């Protein structure tokens, strides 16, 4: 096994540890960690994040303005990037060497969304699985 393959596996395993999700097919997670491949999983993940937060608000019987406020905060790129960095997900990202191996906030937010999209796909669209990962990443409804 090549050194690059081992590093790839370490990144995927670390992302699983951080997300508390053991993927049925790690082929769902790997593209979420690649900045050049994670745009489509991120579109799905962003939508799923919003859906979960809305459902959590509805189940709490909060006002629409309260739901909007939580969405504005918790589904924002700034918040998602902050959670990605805080949980250590930046170390799991396949970085763009042309940018000095730095993960910037925008791509970090996209990666977090893509991971949620990957969980949704890997779990056969199971929102309970997604909620568990969102909680582990600190992006669920505020208590």
Short account of what is shown:
The protein has 143 residues and is mainly α. The chain is built from six helices and no strands.
Describe the protein in words.
The chain has about 140 residues and is mostly helical. It has a single domain (about 5-135), classed as Ribonuclease iii, N-terminal Endonuclease Domain, Chain A. It is built from six helices and no strands. Helix 2 packs across helix 5. The mean pLDDT is about 95.
Chart the SSEs and their pairings.
Layout: H1 3-19, H2 39-59, H3 64-74, H4 77-87, H5 105-122, H6 127-137
Helix pairs in contact: 2-3, 2-5, 4-5
pLDDT under 50 segments (min length 5)?
Answer: none
What is the CATH C-level name?
A: Mainly Alpha
CATH homologous superfamily assignment: Ribonuclease III domain
Could you name the CATH topology?
A: Ribonuclease iii, N-terminal Endonuclease Domain, Chain A
Give the second-level CATH assignment, the architecture: Orthogonal Bundle
Number of domains: 1
**Annotation, overall tally of beta strands:** 0
What is the first-to-last residue Cα distance?
45 Å
Q: What is the tally of helical segments?
A: 6
Structural class: mainly alpha
The rounded Rg comes to 15 Å
Biggest pleated sheet: none
**General form:** globular
Average residue-wise pLDDT: 93
Helix content: 55-70%
SSE arrangement, N to C: HHHHHH
Strand share of the residues?
A: under 5%
């Amino acid at each position: 096994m090549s050194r690059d393959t081992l590093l790839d596996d370490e990144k995927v395993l670390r992302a699983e540890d951080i997300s508390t999700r053991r993927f049925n097919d790690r082929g769902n997670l790997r593209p979420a960690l690649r900045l050049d491949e994670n745009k489509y999983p991120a579109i799905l993940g962003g939508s799923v994040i919003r859906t979960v937060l809305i459902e959590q608000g509805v189940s709490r019987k909060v006002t629409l303005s309260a739901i909007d406020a939580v969405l504005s905060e918790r589904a924002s790129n700034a918040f998602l990037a902050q959670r990605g960095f805080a949980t250590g997900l930046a170390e799991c990202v396949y970085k763009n060497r042309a940018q000095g191996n730095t993960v910037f906030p925008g791509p970090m937010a996209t990666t977090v969304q893509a991971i949620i999209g990957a969980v949704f796909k890997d779990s056969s669209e199971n929102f309970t699985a997604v909620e568990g990962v969102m909680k582990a990443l600190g992006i669920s409804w505020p208590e």
